[in-house]
Design a protein that fits this description.
Methionyl-tRNA Fmet Formyltransferase, Chain A, domain 2, Rossmann fold, 6-stranded antiparallel sheet
Length: 314
């Protein structure tokens, strides 16, 4: 008999796992829970989550409760009575009354080596902190925030130029076989859940738009980590001549050792450089002024007609 599974998830991070569960005969996805359709884009039209689209295409019943704490959601989970619930980036807290319904528990794939980076943005926070390695954890969820016992872990190196978008995509692919293997081992009784060491815990709270504002007093390497971590949202931005301006760039080198004010813009040949803290430089690759399209650094410089007094401000 295949394991009867409920899948809970919303963004693309959980999509490879759902697709694998749908393909393999050892598992039967009985239902999918995902967040209600939300307005997106300039027209603010209601859009389905990637998880919902995949479930509907496979003919799996989809449920979108506003609150998992509702009596209706609890009754539905209880009626289905799955062997396990796989939950990946669902976006809602699961009430304690539901946790004991599946006999194998609620199995979560988390984007860090717990107990480090508990919370909603573990991948982005790891890049922002300049980490060179992160990882994946399968765990049984409990009533806390990513505090449940660990089942399996997989270290994942972070590329020096890897963005959050790229790393999330790579980790989601690595996580799919890991979740399926965790389920198989649980069914065979081959896994012993390991409590987390709470004294080693760190937090990874949700990203805020205001965090994208660049502090040019930081070294270029720290600003580059911010650019990578906040791709695609909230992005990294600064002020230029009183207007908001999104920035893409990487650490660079100036032709001289002259110390200038942080945020100062220098054009050296085909390079546009910005002075950063610690006598370092960020080489700009592309920019987008508010209300305009993204352009290369040289297109920006030619259009703005930069002067020696121009600088970016926080």
């Amino acid at each position: 008999m295949p394991l009867r599974i409920i899948f809970c998830g919303t963004p693309t991070f959980g999509l490879p796992t759902l697709q694998r569960l749908l393909r393999e005969s050892a598992f039967s996805v009985e239902a999918v829970f995902t967040q209600p359709d939300r307005p997106r884009g300039r027209r603010h039209e209601a859009a389905q989550s990637p998880i919902k689209e995949a479930a509907l295409e496979a003919g799996v019943p989809v449920h979108q409760p506003e609150k998992m704490r509702s009596d209706a959601a609890t009754e539905l989970i209880t009626q289905i009575h799955p062997d396990a619930v796989v939950i990946i980036a669902y976006g809602q807290i699961i009430p304690g009354a539901m946790l004991d319904v599946p006999r194998l528990g609620w199995i979560n794939l988390h984007g860090s080596l717990l107990p480090k980076y508990r919370g909603a943005a573990p991948v982005q926070r790891a890049i922002l902190a300049g980490e060179r390695q992160t990882g994946l954890t399968t765990m049984r969820i409990d009533a806390g925030l990513d505090t449940g016992p660990i089942l399996e872990q997989l270290p994942v190196n972070i590329g020096p130029d890897e963005t959050a978008t790229q790393l999330l995509a790579r980790m989601s692919d690595l996580g799919a076989p890991m979740v399926l293997e965790t389920l198989r081992k649980l069914e065979r009784g081959e896994l012993t859940p390991k409590p987390q060491n709470n004294s080693l815990a760190t937090l990874a709270p949700p990203l805020r738009k205001t965090e994208g504002l660049i502090d040019w007093g930081q070294p270029a390497s720290a600003i580059y980590n911010r650019i990578r971590a906040f791709d695609p949202w909230p992005g990294t931005y600064t002020q230029f001549r009183g207007h908001s301006c999104h920035i893409w760039g990487r650490p660079g080198e100036a032709d001289s050792e002259t110390r200038v004010q942080c945020g100062a813009i220098e054009q050296q040949g085909q390079k546009i450089l910005v002075a950063c803290g610690g006598n370092t430089w960020l080489q700009i690759d592309a920019m987008r002024l508010e209300g305009r399209k993204r352009v290369t650094a040289m297109e920006f410089a030619n259009g703005a007609r930069l002067t020696s007094n121009d600088r970016f401000t926080s």
